[in-house]
Design a protein that fits this description.
alpha+beta, 16% helix, Neuraminidase
Length: 890
């Protein structure tokens, strides 16, 4: 197998896509043409067979000459270091098998897919190419609905029999493993009867497979599926499918098409896939006629039922209005968090009110985007959205979801899965986005104000201009129905400028283009009513979700605010659709935690301070104090650094002001603290005496987002993370001498963060996601080229023991891990061992923070652990309210 980051000829391997009987497939980058491709490594049995290679080359050359939009193209046949591979067009998106796994496909969609498959088969058959292994797993459906058929003609290269027809033991997906008892061979169910019997095959075998695929799309079931390979092949040769499973509408027309394809008698089977076009057109026409008649019948039935219900309900409505009772049409229910998935973030409703998107932990321990359809019981993760931001947003037509990644990219993906498209780079922390009906996306970026970019992608341009003198930041934009005006939240060091604002795409950047609506900074969502000029604005005030009439012509409130729900600590955990669906979570994304001492066995041996909403943790060099960042419950979105002295147990606030301050770093002698703060929105580095006396002095200020990590033992270097237009990088700031210019230490296409100097200053331990998941690495310092070692098998938050003999980190399954290390005369390390289960709080920021520290002797750990009653906050359900506007009528 090839490994990510390695090279194959002129291609750089990115990731393994899949593997099977046809070989291993990798995503790779063509460095010459600057494009992503798929590289299929041929199985050893074929690669060492001269006749097989010759056949393979002939098939590849023939297929390469076929220019058909629904066939994945072959770019070349390569050989590197004795390994042969095909270089092919890379097709992102789910396979048809993935789509069918969710159930039958609606008839209209299934017929559209079938038509494109038929076009691909016809083009290949005209060139004398037979697929021989057509199945849903070899068909991809892109987000735009375009179909691509993969692996055309490759099966013939695996045919070692003298004739063109493979024997049963050498059919496209059969191998020596398939002869073992009890093994189910999925693709045996797609073989034509003549193929299953080992006879010669022609293009009619593909027509049979086409019929099987169409049957499976319409029913969600395979027509032939036995317990073993032999049972399946016997069913193919002797039994008929269950024709009753095919949907009744448009009835006999679909039945006719599938039956013609699945005729066991070759003479009665559809002779040319081109003939399927006529049948598909007949089905489509009949489907339209049938649907029209059905709609008419439903319309008359619905009219009659409505009239009957009106007669029954009239007295009830009369009593309700007479007694001024609350309308009973308001319906509330709750959606639990996905099983074993902690921390579902803000629920975001689709505009049509049918789906909810939210960010939560995925199977690999990384945040991923989830979709929950309100008419289903399960939530599903969207592949390719790992490390997404926590404020996703929908396209106006409810087809796509926009999201930001930890790598600083704005992306979009189809709600039902498919290729993920990068739209632009993001500088600074992601602060929410919105999608206009006119094709414009606007988003907030801490330190950069509001930006705009076309929904097709491009270079973002400023929509608002930050006034650095007032230290403002803009976030949480949402659009009004006109697609031109938008609401956004402004946080400012000046209370006179904080609040909820409304702006316009038609105005140029600047304060004059915005209007202040509320003094408290909050997210707001507008919901239309029957009156096109008067709707409702939802926002949070003093812990309650408020509803207030809003005039879209005057852009001002038109009535009193009414509370909808209480218990909102965070102002952004709600969403509403255009048709009267509301979704929200109460509580906070930061649950209650307790600074807790654990020994090496996991036994609790003490606690620091009272329970609170703590974030990052840093012990003083002598182990006598701890500096922690703590969220301010009175001012949402802000945090301050507090100092706790263990001898006295009292906590004292260290930083002040409305900005968020976190990631404290002690100087080697403990006399000063460097920390990250965002008074200007840029997350800059500040310094202050640990005694608390004096000012908070600016140490490093720029438009990029930064995070302080560590101070070298000799006092010369400050190690910090920087997030610019790409992923997180590691930088160092000289603190001695005359040169105080920042220097880049480590940067790549991956995130590098959470870095720590070794006690002797010769190495840096850090976290990187270059393997596709978070891992702990050690690299030489001051020159990163001096050596690199992978320490963990999934891990984060590295810490050195003060004598440099151990390295600690948190594993992917939240265990405290310890690794024996030596740093002189060279770096060496042992096998990681688990010490105990660390109930460490994950929280919304995971790439740039550390939420535990180690006592100088390495025998105790101070962990920002979840409080005993915090689990409910992490998995609190999503409340859904239908027809919530009805409750506003009095």
């Amino acid at each position: 197998m090839l490994t990510p980051g390695s090279t194959y000829g002129g291609y750089q391997i990115i990731a393994l896509i899949g593997s099977g009987g046809m070989g291993e497939v990798y995503r790779a980058r063509d460095r010459k043409l600057d494009r992503d491709v798929a590289i299929k490594i041929l199985p050893e049995a074929l690669a060492t067979d001269p006749q097989g290679i010759a056949r393979f080359e002939r098939e590849a050359k023939t297929l390469a000459a076929v220019n058909q939009p629904h066939i994945a193209q072959i770019y070349g046949l390569e050989e590197s270091n004795g390994v042969r591979a095909l270089v092919m067009e890379l097709i992102d998106g789910p396979t048809l098998a993935d789509r069918i796994a969710h159930g039958p496909i609606p008839i209209d969609e299934a017929l559209l897919i079938a038509k494109q498959i038929a076009e691909a088969l016809e083009a290949a058959h005209e060139q004398g190419i037979i697929h021989r292994d057509l199945k849903p797993a070899n068909i991809k459906v892109r987000a735009d609905g375009k179909v691509k058929v993969l692996d055309f003609g490759l099966a013939k290269a695996f045919d070692t029999s003298p004739s063109s027809g493979a024997g049963a033991t050498m059919s496209p997906t059969l191998s020596i493993h398939a002869t073992q008892a009890g093994i189910i061979l999925g693709t045996a169910g797609y073989m034509a009867p003549e193929q299953a019997r080992g006879k010669s095959v022609d293009k009619r075998a593909d027509i049979w497979a086409f019929g099987v695929v169409l049957y499976e799309m319409l029913t969600g079931q395979r027509p032939f599926e036995g317990e073993t390979v032999s049972d399946t092949l016997i069913d193919v040769a002797t039994k008929e499918p269950d024709w009753g499973r095919i949907p009744a509408a448009p009835g006999r027309h679909v039945d006719r098409l599938v039956r013609r394809c699945l005729e066991k008698d070759l003479k009665r089977r559809l002779q040319d896939i081109g003939d399927a076009w006529l049948l598909l057109e007949e089905v489509g026409a009949a489907s339209g006629l049938t649907e029209t008649r059905a709609q008419g019948v439903r319309r008359w039935l619905w009219a009659g039922v409505t009239a009957l219900l009106a007669m029954i309900a009239a007295p009830v409505f009369f009593m309700y209005f007479r007694e001024k009772a609350t309308m009973t049409e308001v319906v509330r229910f709750q959606i639990p968090a996905p099983e074993n998935i902690p921390f579902p973030a803000t629920p975001v409703l689709s505009p049509n009110g049918r789906m909810i998107a939210f960010s939560a932990r995925g199977p690999a321990g990384r945040n991923i985007l989830w979709i929950r359809q309100l008419d289903t019981l399960d939530s599903r993760a969207l592949p390719g959205t790992e490390d997404d931001g926590e404020r996703s947003f929908w396209s106006p037509d409810s087809r796509f979801v926009g999201f930001a990644t930890a790598q600083g990219k704005l992306k979009k993906v189809a709600a039902f899965g498919g290729p993920v498209q990068t739209l632009c780079d993001i500088s600074g922390f992601w602060a929410g986005g919105a999608w206009s009906r006119n094709g414009t996306i606007i988003f907030g970026s801490v330190g950069h104000g509001l930006m705009r970019v076309p929904d097709s992608g491009g270079t973002p341009s400023p929509l608002t201009v930050l006034d650095s003198s007032r230290e403002d930041s803009y976030s949480e934009p949402t659009f009004l129905p006109d697609g031109r005006h938008f609401f956004y939240r402004r946080d400012s060091a000046s209370a006179d400028h904080s609040g909820l604002y409304v702006g316009s795409l038609d105005s140029g950047p600047g304060e004059a283009s915005s209007k202040r609506l509320l003094a408290a900074p909050t997210k707001a969502v507008y919901v239309p009513s029957k009156d096109p000029a008067l709707g409702y604005l939802l926002y949070v005030r003093e812990g309650s979700l408020m509803t207030q009439p809003f005039d879209t012509r005057r852009l001002e409130f038109a009535g009193e605010a009414v509370p909808e729900s209480e218990g909102f600590i965070d102002r952004g955990m709600f969403s509403a659709s255009e048709n009267g669906v509301l979704a929200y979570r109460t509580g906070s994304v930061f649950p209650m935690t307790q600074l807790t001492w654990f020994d090496r066995t996991g036994k609790i041996v003490g606690a620091v301070g009272e329970p609170g909403r703590y974030d990052t943790v840093a012990l003083s060099p002598d182990g006598a104090k701890v500096a922690v960042s703590r969220l301010d419950s009175q001012a949402v979105g802000t945090s301050a650094i507090w100092l706790y002295e263990f001898a006295h147990g009292n906590g004292q606030r260290f930083t002040f002001g409305p900005a968020a301050s976190y990631m404290p770093v002690w100087s080697p002698d403990g006399s000063r603290l460097v920390f990250t703060s965002s008074p200007t929105g840029g997350n800059d580095l500040y310094e202050k005496a640990s005694s608390g006396i004096g000012n908070e002095d600016s140490l490093l200020k720029s438009m990029e987002t930064k995070s302080s990590y560590d101070w070298s033992r000799d006092g010369r270097w400050l190690l910090y993370g920087l997030l610019g237009a790409g992923p997180w990088e590691l930088w160092i700031l000289p603190l001695t001498g005359n040169d105080h210019k920042p220097r880049r230490y480590l940067a790549s296409q991956y995130n590098e963060s959470q870095a720590r100097f070794s006690p002797d200053g010769r190495f840096v331990a850090y976290m990187s996601d270059e393997s596709g998941r978070n891992e702990v690495y050690v690299q030489a310092f001051p020159q990163a080229s001096g050596g690199k070692w992978l320490i963990s098998k999934g891990g984060s938050m590295p810490h050195w023991r003060h004598d440099g003999k151990e390295l600690f980190y948190i594993s992917a399954d939240s265990k405290m891990m310890a690794v024996n290390v030596t740093t002189a005369p060279e770096f060496r390390y042992g096998n990681p061992k688990a010490l105990f289960e660390a109930r460490i709080f994950g929280g919304p920021r995971t790439l740039n923070v550390t939420r535990y520290d180690v006592a100088p002797d390495g025998q105790k750990f101070l962990i920002n652990a979840l409080a005993a009653d915090a689990s409910s906050a992490l998995t609190s359900p999503i409340t859904v309210v239908l027809n919530w506007q009805m409750g506003l009528r009095r």
